[in-house]
Amino acid sequence: MSADSRIEAITRRIVERSKPSREVYLERVRMQISKGVHRSVLSCGNLAHGFAACSVGDKAALAGDQVPNLGIITAYNDMLSAHQPFETYPALIRKAAAEAGGIAQVAGGVPAMCDGVTQGQPGMELSLFSRDVIAMAAGIGLSHNMFDAAVFLGVCDKIVPGLVIAALTFGHLPSVFIPAGPMTTGLPNDEKSRIRQLYAEGKVGRAELLEAESKSYHGPGTCTFYGTANSNQMLMEIMGFHMPGASFINPNTPLRDALTKEATKRALAITAQGNEFTPAGEMIDERSIVNGVVGLHATGGSTNHTLHLVAMARAAGIQLTWQDISDLSDIVPLLARVYPNGLADVNHFHAAGGMGFLIKQLLKAGFVHDDVRTVYGQGLAAYSIDPRLAPDGTVERQPSPEESADPKVLARIETPFQPNGGLKMLTGNLGKAVIKVSAVKPERQVIEAPAIVFHDQQELQDAFKAGKLDRDFIAVVRFQGPKSNGMPELHRLTPPLGVLQDRGFKVALVTDGRMSGASGKVPAAIHVTPEAVDGGAIAKIRDGDVIRLDAIAGTLEVLAPAAEFAARPAIVADLSANEFGMGRELFAPLRRVAGPADEGASVLY
């Protein structure tokens, strides 16, 4: 089925806008492909270093170019629940590669930090830039030019976008992403949120809060709410980097291992030595990027991907903009209700039909491009399946069911939860911003109220605890952008603002910082650009200025006389407290060169 004409039109304009940079990118990829991976022409010293730790048989195989060698880039550490299962993957991958007549080596490890651990802490100021550090670290691993293809082991927030940037930078290599899956369901997310609000109000203590959090995050695997980490997995599948059905199978299960083995063998099958050569840089194109954005909207995914998708696309020479993302949101209906956009978690989403059902519904209406290349082959329709474990221990795929197993979690295209994706760009005299309204009640989507300005998220916390915020207001939390302090997530602001909203006050947030995919019911205009440290209009706001945030009209305005507001000097803040401690001093050069949020907030492009 061909894509909807509106989807086609947006795709065409991205293609036209991207032509100069995309053509240069593809020329470089094809030049590298023409050079090939020729281990046999490495100097003897180079090659000896490259296979010194291999077995005698593998050394003999790697001395020529006849046996494909798979490079493993791993984000394993056993502090992250989502990445702990990767500890055993290299051995599993090596065995599967050998069965397929290939070899696999760990090419390198990349850092993987947990936003859940650093939330509200100084370490969160390293989080966004870790994406680009991960891309560079993966690049170092692949720079040895020993590999015919790569597999990437990563799941969480900045890790997958960083790995995608690396995969596309090494776009002459086929690349397959191998996930670890979500943890099993624990304490329901709405109950966890309730305890957090009670703690914010002082009605329960730290012991009760820790007990609730521990029951929520209780074992190996991704956190089960639909934040950035699980949005990453959806993206990798709908963009064709995963094997079909791989995203949401729990860790340490036979099916999970079978999918990992299958992905390994597929990565070896799509090298230049085979008949299905699929270099990542040619596989991912403008249609793939549009499919990713559509999937984000259809599932109510993380706002962080308004940064990451832009940066990932740029790595392939594709110029994606916030306007593209916002226009696609106006077209694509919301088909999933997963916390914070509903009560279900990702395990419930998978049980209701998961990615296979979602993709089938989107294909039915022409909201995604079917005529794309994937690691599995040609066409996205091959992903509209339900993965099962075959009697022989391999993966078998059945057609996705025609009906959702739970229409309250996953809807048919004819009966969506709402007619649009709920992720919009805001414009006005404050610049540009992003807002996610899929979990915001309609009556909360337009807020007009006086500003209360903060330069630190702790200032807002302190004002709340002191009882100074029991009124209608819009919290302006500024100097939180990439150049100011690395653009940390401000998710700790959700409980106090949620409490105030529940008390009946009209509240909203305006910030040049980020909110995670776990934020929900409070309207938040985030990623404001230009940011305050660049003299953006957000730095001109004063306490008491009336701000109008209109998520329906897509506007963000300070209601002040235009000439007077334009003539105001921008406030300059003392940011010295953000420059040291927990490694922040190491990232000072990155803060200086970081790009604006609407260009991906990257230090690479």
Q: What number is the mean pLDDT?
A: 93
What percentage of the residues does DSSP assign to strands (E)?
5-15%
Would you report the number of β strands? Answer: 16
Largest pleated sheet: 8 strands, mixed
| Radius of gyration over C-alpha positions, nearest whole angstrom | 24 Å
Ranges with pLDDT <50 over ≥5 residues? none
Strand order of the largest sheet: 9-10-14-13-12-11-15-16
Shape: globular
Structural class: alpha/beta
Helical content (DSSP H or I, runs of 4+): 25-40%
Our count of helices gives 22
Q: State the distance separating the first and last CA atoms.
A: 36 Å
What does this structure look like?
The mean pLDDT is about 95. Helix 1 packs across helix 15, helix 8 runs antiparallel to helix 9 and helix 10 crosses helix 13. The chain has an eight-stranded mixed β-sheet with strand order 9-10-14-13-12-11-15-16. It has a four-stranded parallel β-sheet with strand order 2-1-3-4. Helix content is about 40%, strand content about 15%. The protein is globular and about 75 Å long. The protein is built from 22 helices and 16 strands. It is α/β, with parallel strands linked by helices and about 600 residues long. The protein starts with a helix and ends in a 12-residue tail after the last helix.
